[in-house]
Amino acid sequence: MAIKFHYHRALGDVQRLGIRRGDLLCHVYSDASLDELIAWGSERGWRPAYLDLRNDLPHFDAFGARLRLCGQGVSRREFIRDVRWWRARRRAREEPGSELSDRSA
Questions:
Q1: Inter-residue contact 59 to 52 (CB < 8 Å)
Q2: What does the alpha-carbon distance between residue 50 and residue 60 come to, in Å, rounded to a whole number?
Q3: How confident is the model at residue 71 (pLDDT cuts 50, 70, 90)?
Q4: Phi, psi dihedrals of residue 86, rounded to the nearest 5°
Q5: What is the pLDDT of residues 16-30, one digit of tens each?
Q6: How many CB atoms lie within 10 A of CB 45?
Q7: In angstroms, how far is the first alpha carbon of the chain from the final one?
Q8: Which one, of 9, 11, 1, 16, lies nearest residue 67 by Cα?
Q9: Between the CA of residue 58 and those of 22, 97, 103, what are the distances in Å?
C-alpha cells in the first residue's frame, strides 16, 4: 500500500519540541498497516517509540528538519477517508469475534 503525508499548521506552541504556533507539521501515516509505517520510519532513523498512537490514526509527527523526508501531501478529503478507515478498524478490533478488514485484500 502507501505511506502518506498530511501537512498542517501547529495550533499552538509545544515548547518541549521547539514547535511554535503556525509552524508547518506533517502527519506521516500508512494507508494500510502499522508494520508498513514502522518500516518506513526505521529506514529513516525514526524509532517506533516516536509513533503517536493516542488517536485513531497511528502516525509519526514530522517537523523542522524532518519535513525534508516527507513527500507530496494528500488532500484533506483523502486524509479524512483514511482516518475513518483506521477508526473503523480499531472499533472492529474491539468487538469480540469480529474479523478485521484489510486494505491489501
A1: yes
A2: 6
A3: very high
A4: -60, -40
A5: 999 999 999 999 999
A6: 9
A7: 11
A8: 9
A9: 23, 23, 16
Q: Read off the C-alpha cell for 60.
A: 509519526
H/E element holding 91?
Answer: helix 76-94
Q: How far apart are CA 30 and CA 8, in angstroms?
A: 17
Query: Cβ contacts of residue 2 below 8 Å, gap of 6+?
Result: 30, 31, 32
| Residue 21 phi, psi dihedral angles, 5° rounding | -50, 130
| Greatest extent of the chain over all pairs of C-alpha atoms, in Å | 45
How many Å apart are CA 58 and CA 64, to the nearest integer?
Answer: 20
Instruction: Report residue 76 as a C-alpha cell.
Output: 484533506
Q: Are 82 and 59 in contact (CB under 8 A)?
A: no
User: What is the model's pTM?
Assistant: 0.85
